[in-house]
Amino acid sequence: MKKELREKIVSVLSKEIPEVDQIKDKIKIDIPKEEKFGDIAINAAFLLTKLLKQKPIDIANRIKQILEKEPEFEKVEVAGAGFINIFLSPVFYHNILKKIIEEKDQYGKAKNKDKGRINIEFVSANPTGPLHLGHGRGAVVGNVQSNLYEYIGYFVEREFYINDAGRQIRKLGESVCARFFQIENPDYPFPEDGYHGDYIKEIANHLYKYEREKILSFVDKEQAIDFCAEFAKELLLEKIKEDLKEFGVEFDIWFSEKSLYTSGKVDEAIEFLKKKGLIYEKEGALWVKTTEYGDDKDRVIIKSDGSYTYFAGDIAYHYDKFKRGYDFVVDVWGADHHGYFPRLKAAVMAFGVPEDWLRVIFIQLVKLFKNGQEVKMSKRSGSFVTLRELIEEVGKDAVIYFFLTKDSNTHLNFDIDLALKKSSENPVYYVQYAHARISSVFREAKERFGFDPEEDFEADLSLLKENQERVIMKYLAFIPDLISEAAEKQQPHKLTQITYDLASEFHYYYNHFKFLVEEDENLMKARLYLLKAIRYALRTLFKLMGITPVERM
RNA sequence: GUCCCUGUAGCUCAGCAGGAUAGAGCACCAGAUUCCUAAUCUGGAGGUCGGCGGUUCGAAUCCGCCCAGGGACACCA
Q1: Distance from residue A507 (CA) to nucleotide B30 (C1'), in Å?
Q2: Highest mean pLDDT among A2-6, A317-321, A417-421
Q3: Contact A169, A131 (CB under 8 A)
């Protein structure tokens, strides 16, 4: 909506003040905090001071005269040092409500996916155990950011990178294998840095039950480890898929790290860099000149023992993404990898992509709190809280919402007690209650008046004269701007704030006005129309976050 | 040592491509229910935006220096 308003203002002004053309890109449409400062405020007068060599206040008064002639603007005022405050007319707002009713839970969403094609890779957990809280936060942030990019018109592919090569998988195999042999021989040694979780024992028990003969028949112990590793990996991956699906997260692409090696893609990527003169040999190892593109030091891609580094795999993986032709790609990483960004960026730059082709969203730690005490997680002992456990305890919606309350790049303290509270203190209940309340009013309307707001209806919106009604309509008008801003800045956590504020405005409205006005059917319809728009706006936001819109609580 | 992040109300944090009197939730104090769900709402108190400079009509926001806390700097994954 801001964009439309800005275009309008610029075109009207530049007819009378040609200098406006020079500053049009700097004109900012603000939504003032206080109602007396109008519905929108523009900074045009300040920007023109130098060009026109006049005081901001004088320029502002001239702008006021010009803009006041427009029917969309009910009133224009000059305030402070030269702020121009514009009050929008009721017709403007009525059109917003109609637009929402039309677009339903896709309010403000781009109609086409013509902005570009992008890839977002997230979660990408090692298939060596269940998902933990960090993965969960990454899953929510990655998924919601994907939704946001779709909202503003991108075609998005969600991708999960399976770390199925390398030491972790081997360790998994050793651990499962050891647990398997321990069933018959309790003294069988367990690898020192193996995985201790109970799930390892469960997998071993399963194998003992169904694959005992086969495993015992292996002559070579290595074969047994490989077999266990492969089996456990597949099983754990299935578990991960299930958990994510239940969490509302689905991927378009499951990309296997191992496939990079078996298909020769790693060598292909190295060959590409070699041709660009970025590869050299030193101390028996193969290095890539990442310093050419801003890294602190060059990096090894093939160790002196002939094996690839993890970095080699990552270069090949991103080379593959590059060849798939995305406009840009997003990686969601744990914050502990932030030092890794410059070197990968350098490698990617070597492909000849723009500076911001590779974008990384960092996910900071999640700490769980219960009864005011931190719930310690220890992966080594195997007694860590999994994502599934948390979802079972507080519910999917609460987990998603809480994961989205803060910028993903800051530490998050997850208060379990708060998430379980059924009161206004708990923001999840607060926003869902707003939705449920509107549904409840609709049910009541149907029962008492035989009027079903769920069906299409017309209303005389000029009857919405209360200040709070105008406040809500104004908030609704700019929700698409707020969502788009969150999308572009890669800040999905803003959605919770937007939702909370809308819920808050509604609750206030509910408490001060009656919707089911018996004595005035037209007023009732107008208000129900507004409620319907609010509910669709809430649903739009819920949908982006992946939260269930509940009909009754 | 180099680099990154953080520092805003008692607590947890928003705000930070500059804008009007710095916000929210919790906690604290005082209130509201013959009424569509009180799982709600209203009001109050609470701040040298870590410090010092700079840029400008204007700085929590941008720049520089400093202080404090956390993290990253492997032929690990």
Answers
A1: 22
A2: A317-321
A3: no
Q: How far apart are CA A170 and CA A166, in angstroms?
A: 7
> How long is the CA A429 to C1' B45 vector, in angstroms?
28
Residue A19 CA to residue A21 CA, distance in Å, equals 5
Who among residues 185-224 of A has its Cβ near strand B, under 7 Å? none
**In A89-164, which ranges are E strands?**
116-121, 154-162
A14 touches strand B (CB under 7 A): no
Range 515-544, chain A: CB under 7 Å to any strand B atom: 515-516
Q: Which residue is nearest to nucleotide B57 (CA to C1')?
A: A46
Strands (E), A186-266: 253-256
Judge contact between A453 and A532, C-beta under 8 A.
Answer: yes
Which nucleotide, over all strands, has the C1' atom closest to the CA of A33?
Answer: B20
In chain A, the percentage of residues whose pLDDT exceeds 90 is 44
CA–CA distances in Å: residue A196 to residues A85, A183, A202, A378: 64, 15, 11, 10
What pTM value is reported for the model?
0.92
Our measurement of CA A468 to C1' B52, in angstroms, reads: 46
Q: How far apart are CA A172 and CA A126, in angstroms?
A: 10
Q: What is the CA radius of gyration of chain A?
A: 29
User: Distance between CA atoms of A470 and A49, rounded to whole angstroms?
Assistant: 34
**ipTM of this predicted complex?**
0.86
Nearest to A295 by CA among A339, A335, A325: A339
CA distance A490 to A501: 20
Contacts of A438 (CB under 8 A, 6+ apart): A506, A531, A532, A534, A535, A538
Name which of A492, A262, A268 is nearest A361 in CA terms.
A492
Element (H, E) at A62: helix A56-67
Instruction: Tell me, rounded to whole angstroms, the distance of Cα A494 from its chain centroid.
Output: 9
Closest CA to A408 of A200, A142, A205, A78: A142
CA A356 / C1′ B65 distance in Å: 31
Q: Is the CB of A106 under 7 A from strand B?
A: no
Give the tokens for residue A517: 């006005």
pLDDT category at A438 given cuts 50, 70, 90 is: very high
How far is A467 from A449, CA to CA, in rounded Å?
Answer: 26
* Percent with pLDDT over 70 in chain A: 97
Please give the nucleotide, over all strands, whose C1' is closest to the CA of residue A436: B37
Question: How confident is the model over A284-293, as pLDDT tens digits?
Answer: 899 999 888 8
Strand B close residues, chain A 28-57, CB < 7 angstroms = 28, 30, 32-34, 37-38, 41, 43, 46-47, 49, 56
Could you identify the residue whose CA is nearest to the C1' atom of nucleotide B2?
Answer: A296
Is residue A335's pLDDT more than 90? no
Q: CB–CB of A145/A490 below 8 Å?
A: yes
Asked whether strand B has any atom less than 7 Å from the CB of A335, the reply is yes
